[in-house]
TrEMBL record, chain A:
The gene is ftsE. GO terms for cellular component: plasma membrane. One of its GO terms (molecular function) is ATP hydrolysis activity. SMART domains: AAA. It comes from Candidatus Sedimenticola endophacoides. Part of the ABC transporter FtsEX involved in cellular division. Important for assembly or stability of the septal ring. GO terms for biological process: cell division. Residues 4-229 form the ABC transporter domain. NCBIfam families: FtsE. The keyword Electron transport does not apply. It comes from the Bacteria. It is found in: Cell inner membrane; Cell membrane. This is Cell division ATP-binding protein FtsE. Belongs to the ABC transporter superfamily.
From TrEMBL, chain B:
This is Cell division protein FtsX. It is found in: Cell inner membrane. Residues 192-309 form the ABC3 transporter permease C-terminal domain. The keyword Membrane applies. GO terms for biological process: cell division. Forms a membrane-associated complex with FtsE. It is a multi-pass membrane protein.
Length: 229, 317
């Protein structure tokens, strides 16, 4: 079953620039997929359409059986709770501890105190930061901050996780570590869509790849390893 | 599935819901106490703005209470005809007492009046020289407070004037009219002032909350990003507004109480000069609660307006 489906989706920004032009594809539940292309090719736009940070100008976006084109504004928060998002710049709150940052999605969803603590520690344990729960993000390295961001994205166990250039600022070794972490989540059934232009990294992962160029999807059945843009 | 999400939200038990609100309320109070100086400044502005109309209306209330002591102001004197005997005067007084627009009727019989006049005026010799008592029997009629307005009192005066036994009815309406006119102006002034200063409180709270929203922009964006509903994001700001209002109300109460305390001794001195027992009455518990409720409501409303205008403008990108 397709958990993410784009049908001829176009996103035009005010001023006429087209971020995406007639994009169609499907992602099956439980897949891990890379989204690649030059900067400005439309990777971020595509992710934003899935997280409903933006809406398509034309065409249909379906996520988890929901038609996002018709989703009412007041239902957006509930949609976002099922889509974990990871950013290149982490987007952590620097006046809160690691624990409080990771707990945010659970607090927002109204989870009880005990359950929240349990789940936050489980998430921090998975990303290897259990000993840092009382630290402030600013005292952590870039890789550790990114792992806090990942813990926050998965703590509420969303079926879909999106990552926008998650390794953009990390050295190859740390990047690979992050990818292994993603594989771990993918292994328990999470659908992952990772936007990156790090082809070197992709080539080592053997996953399906979507390539964008100037807002259009290139057709290639290729899997990582023998794919070149 | 958004439905499922809402159902999950709806299934939260009431005590959990209350607990969560309490947590948010305390958290936003904690937020305010972390910047005590600026919080106090804002609350003081609100307090002063509220103290002014509150104090004025309290003074006005005192003034009206004072006028209540001068019941005589609206009392009507009925001078009865010479033919009207004491028994007839007594019967008339009885009839008048039965009316529900009249609070009290006092009969001053002519002999008694003459005696009083003799002792008090110092004309005892001249009075003794008179063949008969020149004074008529007198009824002093006090209308009920409801019928003490100039219009009602003057209508009553006309009615009493028309009675058979009454020679002449008199009331110092001019004075009553003027006093009512003045208090009405004062009342309306307090109302206008209260309205304007209430608006000022709304603006002060609205502006403060707007700045707070601006300061917590990143937090709001991220909260929206991870699925925080508008109600969830709104809540701490609304509680902030509520706390500002409550704090401002408390400061207003303190200012008014202090002012009354400072006025108390000169007022009682003045009252002493008039041989009156009058003393300023302060704010009762009812008025105090009303002030707090009003200020809290203004704070809530101010933040509601700010939140409505500015929160929707912040969307994650």
């Amino acid at each position: 079953m397709a958990i993410i489906q784009f049908d001829n989706v176009t996103k035009r920004y005010p001023g006429g620039h087209e971020g995406l032009s007639g994009v169609s594809f499907q992602i099956e539940a439980g897949e891990m997929i890379f989204l690649t292309g030059h900067s400005g090719a439309g990777k971020s736009t595509l992710l934003k359409l899935i997280g409903l940070l933006e809406r398509s100008t034309r065409g249909q976006v379906r996520v988890a059986g929901r038609n996002l084109t018709q989703l009412k504004r007041r239902h957006i928060p509930y949609h976002r709770r099922e889509v974990g998002m990871i950013f290149q710049d982490h987007r952590l709150l620097h006046d809160r501890t690691v624990f409080d940052n990771v707990a945010m999605p659970l607090v927002v969803a109204g989870l009880g105190h005990r359950e929240t603590g349990k789940r936050v520690r489980a998430a921090l344990d998975k990303v290897g930061l259990l000993n840092k729960e009382r630290s402030y993000p600013i005292t952590l390295s870039g890789g550790e901050q990114q792992r806090v961001g990942i813990a926050r994205a998965v703590v509420s166990k969303p079926p879909i996780v999106l990552a926008d250039e998650p390794t953009g600022n990390l050295d190859p070794e740390l990047s690979l570590e992050i990818m292994r972490l993603f594989e771990l989540f993918n292994g328990v059934g999470v659908t992952l869509l990772v936007a990156t232009h790090d082809l070197e990294l992709i080539s080592r992962m053997n996953k399906r790849i979507l390539t964008l160029r100037h807002g259009r999807l290139l057709q290639h059945p290729a899997r990582g390893g023998h794919h070149h843009v | 599935m958004s439905r499922a999400g809402r159902h999950r939200g709806g299934a939260i038990r009431l005590d959990t819901w209350l607990l969560r609100h309490l947590q948010v309320a305390l958290a936003s109070l904690g937020h305010l106490t972390r910047a005590p100086f600026s919080t106090l400044m804002t609350a003081a502005v609100i307090g002063i703005a509220l103290a002014l109309p509150t104090g004025l209306s309290l003074l006005l209330g005192n003034l009206q209470q004072l006028s209540g002591h001068w019941d005589g102001a609206a009392s009507i004197s009925l001078f009865l005809t010479e033919k009207s005997t004491l028994e007839k005067a007594d019967r008339l007084a009885g009839r008048l007492r039965a009316r529900d627009d009249i609070a009290r009727v006092r009969l001053i019989d002519r002999d008694q009046a003459l005696d009083e006049f003799r002792t008090l005026s110092g004309f005892s010799g001249a009075i003794d020289a008179l063949d008969n008592n020149p004074l008529p029997n007198l009824l002093v009629v006090e209308p009920t407070p409801l019928h003490s307005t100039p219009e009602a009192a003057s209508a009553l005066l006309d009615e009493l004037q028309a009675l058979d036994d009454v020679e002449f009815a008199q009331i110092d309406l001019q004075w009553v009219r003027r006093f009512h006119g003045i208090t009405e102006i004062a009342q309306r002034t307090v109302l206008i002032l209260g309205g304007l200063l209430g608006l000022a409180v709304l603006l002060v709270v609205g502006n403060t909350i707007r700045l707070e929203i601006e300061n917590r922009r990143a937090e709001i964006e991220i909260t929206k990003l991870i699925g925080g509903t508008n109600a969830f994001i709104r809540r701490p700001f609304l509680y902030s507004g509520l706390w500002y209002g409550l704090l401002g109300g408390l400061i207003a109460w303190l200012l008014v109480s202090l002012s009354l305390f400072l006025l108390e001794s000169p007022v009682s001195q003045l009252a002493g000069l008039y041989e009156s027992q009058f003393g300023l009455s302060g704010m009762g518990p009812g008025a105090f609660l009303l002030l707090l409720a009003g200020s809290a409501l203004l704070g809530l409303l101010g933040s509601w307006i700010a939140v409505g205008r500015h929160l929707s403008a912040i969307e994650p990108t």
